[in-house]
Amino acid sequence: MIKIILPSQLDEYTQGERELVLETERADLCLADVINELDKRHQGVAFRLVDEHGNIRRHIAMFIGEQMVRDLAVPVAPNARVQIVGALSGG
Amino acid sequence: MSRQQLLVGTRKGAWVIDSNADRSVWNINGPMHLGAVVSHFVADTRNPSQRLMSVGSGHLGPSVFLSNDAGASWREASTPPAFSVEPNGAARSVDHVFWLTQGHASEPNVWYAGTSPQGLFKSVDHGDTWQEVLGFNHHPDFLEWRGGDKDGTPDGPKLHSIIVDPHNKKHLLLGMSGGGIFESEDEGETWCALNRGVAMDFYPPKEDGSEYEFGHDPHCMVMHPQQSNRLYHQNHCGLYALDRAQGTRWTRIGDNLPKEVGDIGFPIVVHPRDPDTIWVFPMDGSGQWPRTSPNGRPAVYRSNDGGESFVRQDRGFPQEQAWWTVKRQCMAVDQEDNVGVYLGTSNGQLWGSIDGGENWQPIALDLPQIYSVEVVSLP
Predict the structure, then answer these.
(1) Per the CB < 8 Å rule, is B60 touching A87?
(2) pLDDT tens by residue, B269-310
(3) CB distance A47–B80 less than 8 Å?
(4) Residue of B nearest to A43 (CA)
(5) Cβ distance B12 to B23 under 8 Å?
(6) Contact, B291 vs B284, CB < 8 A?
(7) Residues with Cβ < 8 Å from A6, sequence gap 6 or more?
(8) Which of B55, B60, B94 is best to mutate for the A interface (most A CBs within 10 A)?
(9) Residue numbers of the domain that contains A61
(10) Does residue A91 fall inside a structural domain?
(11) How far does the CA of residue B233 sit from the closest CA of chain A (Å)?
(12) What is the pTM of this model?
């Protein structure tokens, strides 16, 4: 079971859902798979997180556990906690 | 007399402001997309119930939203503008959709979009799905035209002022803040630079004395809606006019503005029926380029003779210590006999004149920083 934590900036796409559970026993998932699954549940959300060339957007941070990652190919363990953070920078 | 509706895009969302029939009372409605950067909010004159809005949060990337009920409800484009990998291997990513222009009257489903980094996009389904105009974005000389993406405006070079000639749907014009003005006669398949006569004094002079063909910094360009040969543009290096029927060389009409004001600015608008009448809002382009009203005294300048002479119009504006300016999409005119002129400021004020700029009244004073103003005549 992978737990996905979402920021408030995505409320418009997720109807306010901030925490999702991805039921899986697979050991071969990567972060891109998690984002794709998220997009299946909330269409359009992936393009808000990842640009047209598969790069995580500049002001989006993704954590697997406590580790921030910038690469969607990073493996995600079946019991991982994935948190997506929208930058609070700006004014 | 018609009721007018102002569509206002800001750094923090969008508002709609409606007037009564004599334009003396204005009602502010909104916000929409509160917190999002709305670079451009436009209505479709071919279909009054259709509206498009460029929306970006700054964090979640760019998008376009569509409304088919005059803004009562919105939905996101199913395929927003996005770059493909260029033939040279470059893989740019759209940061924000900066400009929206409706297509020709004969093609009611067509829209164009300009982005930052600079790119041209087209939709043939009312803005729901967007494709690159490859004749422009993948032109072999495109990188040379635009330079690198760090060149140009501080928050990213912008493709703007997309113009579809109302008398010839194949005739397109656009401006790049890092690159100059370009023209197509075949609906975007091929393009030519249109910058002769335009100063580029931020570059060293060419040793052979010739002009730069491109690399210029146009801020805003307009075509007269009835006489499409008549073009004007406000540039980083002055204010220019071009009668396209007479050739391809721009004339610097900004030399006719007062020297203490100068001819640097962002917006320019043209009278809906008289091609000789224009309005500009000069800003301070001296020294460190503060981009404020010159000497803190905001004023519109109007010409009734194609730029041969200008009249200062500041009645109603603060007369001192007002350091705002007006961005390139933030000035608009209505279609009334006594033309209404509207401008939105960098400190969130919306001003209007219902007598062609003679007298100015505040319409809203406390909006976020204004990024675009468009006018719709209501039935």
Answers:
(1) no
(2) 999 999 999 999 999 988 878 899 999 999 999 999 999 999
(3) yes
(4) B78
(5) no
(6) yes
(7) A14, A17, A18, A19, A20, A84
(8) B60
(9) 2-86
(10) no
(11) 32
(12) 0.92
